[in-house]
Specification:
With 470 residues, this protein is α/β, with parallel strands linked by helices. The protein is built from 20 helices and 9 strands. Helix 4 (50-58) runs antiparallel to helix 12. The structure holds iron/sulfur cluster (2 copies). The site of one iron/sulfur cluster has 10 residues, from loops. One iron/sulfur cluster (SF4) binds at residues 85, 382, 384-387, 406, 409-410, 413.
Length: 470
């Protein structure tokens, strides 16, 4: 039975509730009056229920869709302004005991090179990332209690935070590791992680079990209840996501929104971020096996729907998406992107000789090229990590976000961290564009005291000081 406050996966992600929702939504496909009412609700930036979002997902009325995209753009602008937070993934280990059919790291793949970074390797990778200008990482590992135990992950986090090459620093480490115990989540919290990220892959239990035939990840309930354990372990910023294309996207969108509702109803705080990867070619993965793979059009519709359904949750896209697809997704609601990513273990220091990548990267530009491109589109590339370092996490963060106050710090922080990037890492053309954008953005700051402080800090940054934040 459906119960969003239940601790049991099959009750808070109720298969029957999803099917009923989809049936209901399909029946409203031509109900333009209802769809317009839902758009009016969306416009108020208070989010949509999973049923309302599902109704809009089924509509094919172009006028309604255009309006949806307009509202998504407006909410994006209102809540996130023009800043885009930058990050990079860091793959520590691709040993894995699971058998996910869509991932080349699956245990049965003998054609892939298995690697695990030593602490010395990690230092080299982190220095390479710092030398590009990155400040925020997402750690990635396969699941292997023997080759990649929690102690290794904890030690690696410590190593990453300890490295300061030239003016570089990694100030926020998000962690994307397999579902684990409350005790291990507590250890991750103590190690100072930012967000704990775990993709559900698909909420459809039968498909989930087919796609994960062996290994601990086969256990749908243990995987789906991971965020509950993370919250019990004290991690209050969690990031969810599905791999679109594994199952019917209508089903998985409703699943995602039910998961968000569950976290909100049970813990008082919804997900900090939602990631929207979609299935991509990779070693030993045959895309023809995935008839549910989604088109660009559907992908962007999903981004817009998520933006209006959960306006205060960050949306992340990776370099799986092409430059063009990312440009559109940024307009419709994405607030965080990765740049210059390597999806291989050790890939930032050494170009791949042996294949160890998790998926093919579509956007292969350097970080400077991505920053330059964002500036050209009028965005402020932000290297901000302030909230978690200021203790603005979980419900504290959400309250500020919902009260519209978080923008007051995001903007100035974006300006100051971009300035750091320009001083330390940017090419001359990026510096030129970046300085011009900063000058324009400073003028937009309405609070005179904040503006004065930002102007003073910009000068101090130019003179060599680092790491200012609101
Ligand atoms: Fe292992 Fe994760 Fe790949 Fe599955 S998706 S095979 S758990 S690395
Ligand atoms: Fe993110 Fe907080 Fe920085 Fe805004 S101020 S960009 S919400 S870390």
């Amino acid at each position: 039975m459906f119960n969003s406050k239940s601790a049991h996966a099959e009750e808070f992600i109720s298969h029957e509730e999803i099917l009923e929702t989809l049936e209901y939504a399909q029946a409203q496909k031509d109900n333009i009056t209802l769809q317009k009412e839902i758009l009016n609700t969306a416009r108020q930036a208070k989010g949509l229920s999973y049923r309302e979002a599902a109704v809009l997902l089924y509509t094919e009325n172009q006028e309604i869709l255009n309006e949806l995209y307009t509202i998504a753009r407006e909410l994006k602008e209102k809540i996130y302004g023009n800043r885009i937070v930058m990050f990079a993934p860091l793959y520590l280990s691709n040993y894995c005991v699971n058998s996910c059919r869509y991932c080349p790291y699956h245990v049965g793949n003998c054609t892939i090179a298995r690697k695990q970074l030593s602490q010395e390797d990690i230092k080299r990778e982190v220095i390479a990332l710092q030398d590009m200008g990155h400040k925020r990482l997402a750690l990635e590992t396969g699941e292997d209690p023997k080759n990649c135990p929690i102690e290794y992950v904890l030690e690696s986090i410590k190593t990453i935070y300890s490295i300061h090459h030239k003016n570089g620093a990694i100030r926020r480490v998000n962690v994307n590791i397999a579902a684990t115990t409350v005790e291990n989540y507590r250890k991750l919290k103590e190690a100072g992680i930012g967000t704990y990220i775990l993709f559900q892959e698909t909420y459809h239990k039968e498909n989930y079990e087919y796609l994960h035939p062996k290994g601990p990840k086969h256990d749908y309930a243990y995987h789906t209840e991971a965020m509950d354990r993370a919250m019990e372990g004290g991690i209050d910023d969690v990031g969810i996501g599905v791999l679109f294309g594994l199952s019917d996207y209508h089903y998985d969108l409703v699943g995602l929104l039910l998961h968000a509702k569950h976290l909100e109803d049970r813990f008082g705080v919804g997900p900090h971020t939602i990631s929207v990867p979609r299935i991509r070619p990779a070693d030993d993965v045959d895309l023809t096996e995935y008839p549910n793979a989604i088109t660009d059009e559907v992908f962007h519709k999903l981004v817009a729907l998520l933006r209006v359904a959960v306006p205060y949750t960050g949306i992340i896209v990776s370099t799986r998406e092409s430059e063009q697809s990312r440009a559109e997704a940024l307009e419709l609601g994405v607030s965080q992107i990765s740049g210059a990513s390597s999806t291989s273990v050790g890939g930032y220091v050494e170009k791949e000789e042996e294949n160890s990548a998790q998926f093919e990267v579509n956007d292969t530009r350097t970080l400077d090229e991505v920053v330059n491109w964002l500036l050209g589109l009028g965005y402020i590339p932000s290297f901000c990590t302030a909230c978690y370092r200021e203790g603005r996490t979980g419900d504290r963060f959400m309250q500020l976000a919902k009260a519209g106050q978080i923008c007051n710090v995001c903007g100035p922080n974006a300006i100051m961290t971009l300035k750091e990037y320009l001083e330390d890492y940017a090419s001359p053309d990026t510096v030129k564009k970046g300085e011009a954008l900063i000058a324009r953005e400073v003028e937009k700051i309405q609070n005179e005291k904040v503006k004065e402080r930002v102007v003073a800090h910009l000068q101090e940054l130019h003179e060599g000081a680092r790491d200012f934040r609101f």
